[in-house]
Amino acid sequence: MQPLTDQLLHCALPDLPLPAALHPRWLAEGVLQLMPENARRAVVVSAGIHGNETAPIELLLELLAAISAGSLRPDAALLLVFGNLPAMRANRRYLHHDMNRLFGGRHRTAPRSHEATRAAELEAVTTAFFDHPGTPAGDRWHLDMHTAIRGSLYPQFALVPYHTHPYSPAFFDLLAAAELDAVVQHTQAGGTFSHFVSEQFQAQSVTLELGKARPFGQNDLPQFAPTGRAIRALITGAALPARQKPPVRHFTVAESLIKTSEHFTLNLPDAAENFTCLPPGYEIAAQPDRRWIVSDTARHILFPNAGVATGLRAGLLLAPGAPHLSLPE
Ligand SMILES: [Zn+2]
């Protein structure tokens, strides 16, 4: 295990030396604000909102180590967020409640839990960061890094929250430079951290799914290197690395499979990968009061999971293309 991972898991990160010119300040446990003079943009980078999604946590620790060593010199106001520390220590997705369903104030009506308290805290520190007089108002970004539970035909992809403000061409350039394989546009509001930051602060905010979750120290870190390089370019103002892969594929969420019965079933093998294309007319899911049939246009399944609690999303059906892609006029 890397020493810095050890420090993170033992709450010892605040002892890390950091350049005084960045005015480092821990706003909460696992939340570091860096505020260089005359910052050009504001960037939130978060990982570990799900505690067992270790590779992005290690990527964020690498960035932190490089900043500490002085080899990475951000000229952006930065908020680095390690999301769910107790879940990381327990190597679990969450302790009581999926934190990435509790943002946008949903923590207030959810049952009391560690995750509800932490989601409220992360909303508060994110607000404090964007309200800071040193944080530029016009150029706001948020990358919330995750790994997926199952395999994926497109191994690395972005989930763009539903938004009504413009997402810039520079944002899509960043996703391309990060070598993401696909971009999925949400069409409904959600309780994710990225949705909250997008809506609340009109930020270019996105959830990144960067591969499959593995235990600390067992991740294939080279797979995550392009994302790391793109983040470094974003926070230093350097040119984005050139894309090596084929063009990014775009999808739009056409339908959410919401499980409202204990007797919900999903007609899909356990090994089916994200983005699997299903035949039109196929019954993908059923419960006593309804059946979900695959349409001609929305044939790709994402995040199928019959095991979610009732009331939650058991999968998404995607249509190819990006009809809701909003660009500045
Ligand atoms: Zn996650």
TrEMBL record:
<dbReference type="GO" id="GO:0016788">
    <property type="term" value="F:hydrolase activity, acting on ester bonds"/>
</dbReference>
<dbReference type="GO" id="GO:0009017">
    <property type="term" value="F:succinylglutamate desuccinylase activity"/>
</dbReference>
<dbReference type="GO" id="GO:0008270">
    <property type="term" value="F:zinc ion binding"/>
</dbReference>
<dbReference type="InterPro" id="IPR016681">
    <property type="entry name" value="SuccinylGlu_desuccinylase"/>
</dbReference>
<protein>
    <recommendedName>
        <fullName>Succinylglutamate desuccinylase</fullName>
        <ecNumber>3.5.1.96</ecNumber>
    </recommendedName>
</protein>
<feature type="domain" description="AstE/AspA barrel-sandwich hybrid">
    <location>
        <begin position="247"/>
        <end position="320"/>
    </location>
</feature>
<feature type="active site">
    <location>
        <position position="209"/>
    </location>
</feature>
<dbReference type="Pfam" id="PF24827">
    <property type="entry name" value="AstE_AspA_cat"/>
</dbReference>
<comment type="similarity">
    <text>Belongs to the AspA/AstE family. Succinylglutamate desuccinylase subfamily.</text>
</comment>
<dbReference type="GO" id="GO:0019544">
    <property type="term" value="P:L-arginine catabolic process to L-glutamate"/>
</dbReference>
<dbReference type="InterPro" id="IPR007036">
    <property type="entry name" value="Aste_AspA_hybrid_dom"/>
</dbReference>
<comment type="pathway">
    <text>Amino-acid degradation; L-arginine degradation via AST pathway; L-glutamate and succinate from L-arginine: step 5/5.</text>
</comment>
<feature type="domain" description="Succinylglutamate desuccinylase/Aspartoacylase catalytic">
    <location>
        <begin position="41"/>
        <end position="234"/>
    </location>
</feature>
<feature type="binding site">
    <location>
        <position position="50"/>
    </location>
    <ligand>
        <name>Zn(2+)</name>
    </ligand>
</feature>
<keyword id="KW-0056">Arginine metabolism</keyword>
<keyword id="KW-0378">Hydrolase</keyword>
<keyword id="KW-0479">Metal-binding</keyword>
<keyword id="KW-0862">Zinc</keyword>
<dbReference type="InterPro" id="IPR050178">
    <property type="entry name" value="AspA/AstE_fam"/>
</dbReference>
<dbReference type="InterPro" id="IPR055438">
    <property type="entry name" value="AstE_AspA_cat"/>
</dbReference>
<feature type="binding site">
    <location>
        <position position="146"/>
    </location>
    <ligand>
        <name>Zn(2+)</name>
    </ligand>
</feature>
<dbReference type="Pfam" id="PF04952">
    <property type="entry name" value="AstE_AspA_hybrid"/>
</dbReference>
<dbReference type="GO" id="GO:0019545">
    <property type="term" value="P:L-arginine catabolic process to succinate"/>
</dbReference>
<feature type="binding site">
    <location>
        <position position="53"/>
    </location>
    <ligand>
        <name>Zn(2+)</name>
    </ligand>
</feature>
<comment type="function">
    <text>Transforms N(2)-succinylglutamate into succinate and glutamate.</text>
</comment>
